[in-house]
């Protein structure tokens, strides 16, 4: 062991593993394969790895696992892959790993922010709440920007995440969370009869606490060796899926557990297509929680210096990684389980300066063994402070009742105040924890879901009990699933126990002392802060938590919650169970956004729907707009044209020759059955019974409250078959609405609904030349005006494929809508286009469609209506069957407020200056000179420049609008007020003569 | 499906897309006849006789006869597929039995997913249990894949037919491809 | 994500396949046009939203497409009963009788949170399991 080499030969399990190079804060180091970043840094004698969040105090490694609150670093792979706040105790080492420390400037050793530590008397609990209240406006201007700059931990990358993430829904009979001894036993038992078992563990290898407990003997084998052969046996089974590097982070309803599997973070050179992580959503018939326990630190003054760590962590570094965390090590404990750490280290040749044990008369085999190894044991004593700036250099001890102090030089200090069962997932499952007075622990009490807790998370205090609980739970799960197979049980021949300990601050960090005895390392919360919170009136642990932020960091108080609770209970002079426990929330450890988003990014963020004509439209240079998930051709600019010019030309062309429009996105529903007309009568305001086969009608659909829900043209194909169209955006909800009524209100009707939106591609050909254009292509249909008048539908063929040909118009011109089976759409479109261009026609997009329909005063549901507009308000009273006795909305239309005078009604608006185009959404007032806030009497719903009218046109909803014809109203804008004249809704061809040729 | 020379050509949504990723092959299905059939229990025998197969009445099951398959989608709903060029709409023409038959041949398209990890790939976006116990060969269900609705039919231990509406086909294919890269 | 038993598909399916349809057993009058304002208000606007058993409609929209009814405990989110549209409502008393013990939330009052004794026997000492 050289000056900077703390790797002990003959210790640990990495043996002669391959050397691996890495860097930390720009300095190159060597580790070995199998190391974590933490173990590799410790092997190099590096303890200082970070600065604390609030006080910028130097920090090292507290733990050797996922509970780590201190050793958070940035891991940089490239400019875009810079993961902040990675726990160095979890990050596996790979060749070329680059890690940087956080929360320090200019360097980890000399950090300017550390003045916060000196100023810490001012940063007491609730500091921000109290300090930045006055003057009021300074908050937004001054305090908040500064605090935001200083706040946060770690730096997020500025580039998009180049990694991919995957997801899997999985089902199993038994999910075992945790691959320690208990979990292995449970999985072995549960797997015995071939049922599907998933076993997950957050570490790269199964084994759990056997990583550090090196004296155990199971079935004649060393405990670790047993765990590895058990793991191998499980992996060999077809019915077992073993997921390592996989954290169960959330326990949701009905045994759904969220797991995140880290796939590439430990690899030097991952395959470029491999996902970085995979989110598993596991639905298990039975869940067995074998989540273990987490060792607590001791709460004493300056317990946060680098080099001070949990006893079990030091054992893990020694027994698994072969690394000594120091050469002159102190131990401070209140229970037995720190003794094996001292014993293991001593046997490995490391000097144990002293064990300081708070207990008055520690006894038992471990104490005896320590003594016999010549380790000095100071019982009934406490550590009152530690020395050292960037690394602990000494501990000062004193009898816990006071008296002479003694300072002992050390370079590491191991501590243990006992073990906290990990009831996080149990609690997330809505199980109720129960406080066990004897052992001062919260343990699983009442279960809310079909799960069981086994091992240390259930309060087991030794390996034999742990294994027994695991096997029993696995067998019980199988039995409840209807199977009886029993796995042979391994026998524990030698093991340790881990009961006992203490909660709260140690003597010497007592109430009267102004010392920094940290409870929560990650959020820099001290025992004093918690006492202060209680003194300032916080009574509930939920309030104490929020006031002090104890347990609110990303480690979620894994090491701090119980200490915080105990201190609050002590000050309040109440038993712990009366203070309560704060809520355990998912995620157990932080989960990346990438894993949550997984496949849903880029083109998979949301489906993009394209019509069969999309490619043609694209080739014609169409500009597309998003309409819901659809891409719709918006306009077709020619060379040199802007949107305006293109739309003007398209509008003119349709009315002088013809235009072709892609209407495929409109919703279509086939209503089939002998009661089809009856059903239509109930769902639409219009009468349908007498509509002849072959004819169409414009239909309005209401909600029960009387407001317009959707509209569209409906064709009757035969007595028992209607072809219904809906708005593009309304298609799914209209279908749902119709199914709802059919299934639940009118189930006696013999009729069925089938969505055919995508069965048919729809080519609208509109304009005076429309009939001439399609005539050469249509077979079997007489499309003369006499044989096929406006608002009729025929079935026949076009270009040799079946068509449903509608004579209808949304432009006010003679028009046809050619429905053809979607796969044939493109070819038919091209054939129609060949004819259309002979007549000087053009394709037109949704913008021209909007202008053309506005010229005719045709409404667009959702644009000219907003869910509070009745057919009467929209001037569509004619579409409501007056003789009907029932339809959805019939009663709503009679509501007092729907028949009251002064309702907003849809009218035309002409700007006094014809060149001015109103803004859609602009408010309308009667008197522009009234004081602000003005009384708004309506707003503009549609507004366009109409090249066909040679002026601007608009529609708007205006109070009592139908009574205001000719009246001048005003549209106040930011810099001007626009005068408008109220007029009818129709701006072009008021008599509608063009529809018929 | 033979087409006359004068007939407008057919163009599918997934023409030119097919892939093999991590041993999972993703291939667009050939054009097929598809019919959405709705009927009441009393009329199933008559309908089945015309269609040449007994309509399945158990949830999540399908029935097959040659190239024709009837998929149970709901208690009164079947998706009838004919991969052999026989139009089921023609078979039911003129039948005086209460039912609704609607041609949806072009509404849907399908991706054929095959390979040892086919179920894992689909389970990247489909929340159903696709083990052979829960979803055996011949099982079918309307369900979801990511953000879209699909009809899933297991055609073999390692083979599925994923039906979706045509405008969702590109999403479905891309989702399955992304999932295949991640299995 | 809830797991919902569909009475038509006769198995439990993931919530992703379903859509909630609001309160159940609100029948539309067959002579709705003649309803009084009060009756229409009650029918269209008023919902119960209780803490406890809720009778609600669900549609297996991405499955069999059927609407059905369910009784769910809004405290625990557990489904106590599902039944086809048109089937009779089961009264709460009948369902409460075999209600499983409620699970807990960690934010219930402290006194309630901590049962005096753990609800089931645990092994706390080595070898006692």
Automatic annotation (TrEMBL), chain A:
Keyword Oxidoreductase: yes
Keyword Oxidoreductase: yes
Gene Ontology BP terms: tetrahydrofolate metabolic process
Aminomethyltransferase C-terminal domain boundaries: 904-989
Keywords, in A-Z order: Oxidoreductase
Pfam families reported in the protein's UniProt record: FAD_oxidored, Fer2_4, GCV_T, GCV_T_C, SO_alpha_A3
Xref: InterPro entries: 2Fe-2S-bd_N, BFD-like_2Fe2S-bd_dom_sf, FAD/NAD-bd_sf, GcvT/YgfZ/DmdA, GcvT/YgfZ_C, GcvT_C, GCVT_N, Sarcosine_oxidase_asu
Annotated ranges, domain SoxA A3: 516-596
SUPFAM superfamilies: Aminomethyltransferase beta-barrel domain, FAD/NAD(P)-binding domain, Folate-binding domain
Domain GCVT N-terminal: 613-884
Family: Belongs to the GcvT family.
Record NCBIfam families: soxA
Listed name of the protein: Sarcosine oxidase subunit alpha
Protein source organism: Tianweitania sediminis
From TrEMBL, chain B:
GO molecular function, one term: sarcosine oxidase activity
Gene3D superfamilies, sorted: Heterotetrameric sarcosine oxidase (3.30.70.1520), Probable tRNA modification gtpase trme, domain 1 (3.30.1360.120)
Pfam name, any one: SoxG
A biological process from GO: sarcosine catabolic process
Domain of life where this protein originates: Bacteria
NCBIfam families: soxG
Name recorded for this polypeptide: Sarcosine oxidase subunit gamma
TrEMBL record, chain C:
One example of a Gene Ontology biological process annotation: tetrahydrofolate metabolic process
Pfam families, A to Z: SoxD
Official protein name in the record: Sarcosine oxidase subunit delta
GO molecular function, one term: sarcosine oxidase activity
């Amino acid at each position: 062991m050289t000056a900077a080499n703390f790797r002990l030969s003959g210790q640990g399990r990495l043996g002669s593993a391959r050397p691996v190079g890495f860097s930390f804060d720009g300095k190159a180091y060597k580790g070995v394969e199998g190391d974590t970043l933490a173990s590799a840094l410790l092997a190099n004698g590096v303890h200082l790895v970070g600065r604390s969040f609030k006080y910028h105090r130097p920090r090292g490694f507290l733990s050797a696992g996922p509970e780590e609150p201190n050793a958070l670093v940035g891991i940089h792979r490239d400019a875009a892959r810079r993961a902040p706040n990675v726990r160095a105790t979890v990050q596996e080492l790979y060749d070329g790993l680059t890690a940087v420390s956080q929360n320090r400037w200019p360097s980890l050793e000399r950090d300017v922010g550390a003045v916060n530590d000196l100023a810490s008397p001012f940063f007491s609990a609730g500091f921000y709440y109290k300090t930045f209240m006055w003057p009021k406006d300074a908050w937004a201007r001054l305090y908040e920007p500064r605090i935001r700059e200083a706040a946060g931990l770690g730096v997020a990358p500025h580039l998009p995440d180049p990694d991919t993430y995957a997801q899997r829904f999985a089902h199993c009979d038994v999910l075992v969370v945790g691959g320690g001894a208990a979990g292995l036993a449970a999985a072995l038992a549960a797997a015995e009869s071939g049922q599907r078992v998933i076993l997950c563990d957050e570490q790269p290898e199964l084994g759990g606490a056997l990583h550090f407990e090196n004296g155990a003997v199971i079935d004649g084998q060393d405990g670790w060796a047993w765990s590895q052969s058990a793991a191998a046996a499980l992996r060999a089974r077809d019915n077992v899926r073993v997921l390592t590097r996989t954290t169960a982070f959330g326990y949701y309803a009905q045994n759904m557990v969220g797991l995140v599997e880290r796939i590439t973070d430990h690899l030097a050179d991952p395959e470029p297509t491999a996902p970085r992580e995979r989110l598993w959503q596991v639905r298990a018939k039975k869940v067995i929680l074998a989540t273990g326990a987490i060792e607590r630190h001791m709460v004493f003054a300056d317990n946060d210096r680098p080099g001070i760590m949990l006893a079990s962590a030091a054992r893990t570094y020694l027994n698994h990684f072969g690394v000594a965390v120091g050469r002159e090590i102190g131990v401070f404990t209140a229970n037995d389980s720190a003794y094996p750490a001292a014993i293991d280290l001593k046997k490995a040749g490391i000097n144990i300066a002293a064990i300081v044990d708070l207990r008055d008369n520690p006894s038992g085999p471990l104490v005896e063994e320590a003594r016999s190894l010549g380790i000095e044991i100071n019982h009934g004593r406490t550590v009152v402070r530690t020395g050292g700036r960037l690394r602990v250099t000494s501990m000062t001890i004193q009898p816990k009742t006071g008296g002479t102090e003694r300072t002992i030089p050390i370079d590491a200090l191991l501590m243990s105040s006992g073990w906290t069962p990990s009831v996080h997932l149990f609690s997330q499952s809505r199980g109720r924890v129960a406080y066990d007075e004897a052992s001062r622990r919260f343990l699983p009490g009442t279960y809310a879901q079909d799960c069981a807790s086994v091992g240390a998370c259930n309060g087991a205090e030794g390996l034999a009990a742990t294994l027994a609980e695991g096997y029993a739970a696995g067998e019980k799960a199988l039995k409840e699933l209807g199977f009886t197979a029993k796995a042979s049980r391994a026998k524990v021949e030698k093991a340790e126990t881990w009961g006992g300990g203490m909660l709260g601050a140690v003597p010497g960090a007592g109430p009267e002392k102004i010392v920094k005895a940290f409870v929560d390392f990650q959020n820099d919360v001290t025992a004093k802060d918690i006492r202060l919170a209680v003194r300032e009136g916080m009574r509930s642990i939920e309030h104490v938590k929020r006031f002090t932020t104890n347990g609110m960091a990303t480690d979620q108080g894994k090491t701090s919650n119980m200490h915080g609770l105990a201190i609050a209970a002590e000050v309040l002079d109440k038993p712990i169970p009366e203070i309560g426990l704060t809520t355990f929330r998912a995620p157990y450890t932080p989960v990346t956004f990438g894993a949550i988003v997984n496949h849903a990014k880029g083109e998979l963020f949301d489906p993009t729907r394209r019509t069969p004509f999309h490619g043609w439209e694209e080739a014609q240079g169409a500009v597309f707009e998003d309409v819901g998930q659809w891409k719709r051709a918006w306009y077709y600019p020619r060379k040199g044209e802007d949107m305006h010019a293109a739309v003007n030309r398209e509008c003119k062309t349709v009315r002088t020759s013809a235009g072709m429009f892609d209407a495929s996105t409109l919703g279509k529903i086939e209503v089939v059955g002998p009661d089809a007309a009856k059903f239509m009568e109930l769902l639409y305001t219009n009468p349908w019974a007498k509509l002849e086969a072959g004819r169409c009608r414009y239909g309005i659909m209401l909600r029960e409250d009387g407001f317009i829900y959707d509209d569209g043209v409906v064709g009757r194909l035969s007595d028992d078959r209607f072809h219904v169209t809906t708005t593009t955006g309304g298609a799914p909800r209209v279908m749902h609405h119709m199914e709802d009524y059919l299934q639940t209100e009118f189930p006696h009707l013999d009729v069925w609904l089938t969505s055919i939106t995508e069965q048919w591609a729809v080519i609208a050909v509109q304009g005076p030349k429309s009939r001439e254009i399609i005539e050469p292509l249509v077979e079997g249909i007489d499309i003369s005006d006499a044989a096929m008048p406006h608002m009729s539908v025929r079935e026949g063929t076009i270009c040799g494929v079946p068509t449903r040909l509608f004579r209808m118009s949304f432009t006010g011109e003679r028009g046809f809508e050619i429905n053809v089976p979607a796969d044939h759409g493109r070819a038919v479109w091209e054939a129609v286009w060949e004819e259309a261009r002979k007549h000087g026609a053009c394709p037109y997009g949704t913008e021209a469609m909007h202008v053309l329909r506005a010229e005719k005063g045709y409404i667009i549901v959702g644009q000219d209506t907003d869910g509070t507009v009745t057919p009467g308000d929209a001037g569509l009273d004619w579409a409501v069957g007056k003789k009907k006795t029932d339809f959805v909305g019939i009663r709503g239309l009679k509501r007092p407020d729907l028949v009251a005078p002064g309702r907003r009604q849809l009218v035309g608006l002409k700007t006094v200056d014809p060149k001015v185009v109103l803004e859609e959404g602009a408010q309308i007032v009667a008197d522009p000179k009234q004081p602000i806030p003005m009384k708004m009497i309506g707003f503009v719903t549609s507004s366009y420049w109409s090249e066909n009218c040679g002026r601007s046109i608009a529609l708007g909803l205006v109070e009592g609008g139908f009574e205001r014809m000719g009246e001048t109203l005003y549209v106040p804008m930011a810099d001007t007020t626009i005068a408008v004249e109220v007029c009818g809704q129709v701006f072009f061809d008021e008599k509608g003569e063009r529809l018929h040729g | 499906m033979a087409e006359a020379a004068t007939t407008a050509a057919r163009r599918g949504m997934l023409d030119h897309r097919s892939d093999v990723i991590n041993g999972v092959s993703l291939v667009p299905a050939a054009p097929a006849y598809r019919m959405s059939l709705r009927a009441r229990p009393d009329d199933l025998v008559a309908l089945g006789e015309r269609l040449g197969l007994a309509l399945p009445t158990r949830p999540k099951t399908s029935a097959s006869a040659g190239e024709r398959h009837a998929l149970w989608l709901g208690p009164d709903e079947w998706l009838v597929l004919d991969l052999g060029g026989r139009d089921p709409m023609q078979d039911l023409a003129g039948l005086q039995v209460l039912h609704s038959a609607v041609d949806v041949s072009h509404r849907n398209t399908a991706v054929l997913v095959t390979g040892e990890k086919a179920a894992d790939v689909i389970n990247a976006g489909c929340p159903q249990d696709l083990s052979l116990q829960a979803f055996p060969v011949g099982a079918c269900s309307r369900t979801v894949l990511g953000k879209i609705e699909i009809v899933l039919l297991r055609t073999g231990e390692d083979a599925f037919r994923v039906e979706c509406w045509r405008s969702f086909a590109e999403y479905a294919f891309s989702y399955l491809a992304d999932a295949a890269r991640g299995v | 994500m809830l797991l919902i038993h569909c009475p038509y598909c006769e198995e439990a399916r993931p919530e992703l396949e379903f859509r909630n349809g609001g309160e159940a057993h609100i029948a539309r009058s067959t002579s709705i046009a003649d309803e009084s304002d009060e009756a229409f208000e009650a029918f269209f606007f008023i919902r119960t939203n209780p803490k406890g058993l809720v009778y609600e409609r669900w549609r297996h929209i991405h499955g069999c497409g059927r609407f059905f009814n369910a009784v769910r405990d809004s405290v625990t989110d557990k489904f106590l009963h599902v039944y086809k549209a048109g089937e009779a409502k089961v009264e709460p008393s009948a369902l409460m009788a075999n209600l499983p013990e409620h699970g807990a939330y960690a934010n219930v009052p402290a006194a309630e949170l901590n049962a005096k004794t753990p609800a089931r026997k645990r092994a706390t000492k080595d070898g006692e399991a």
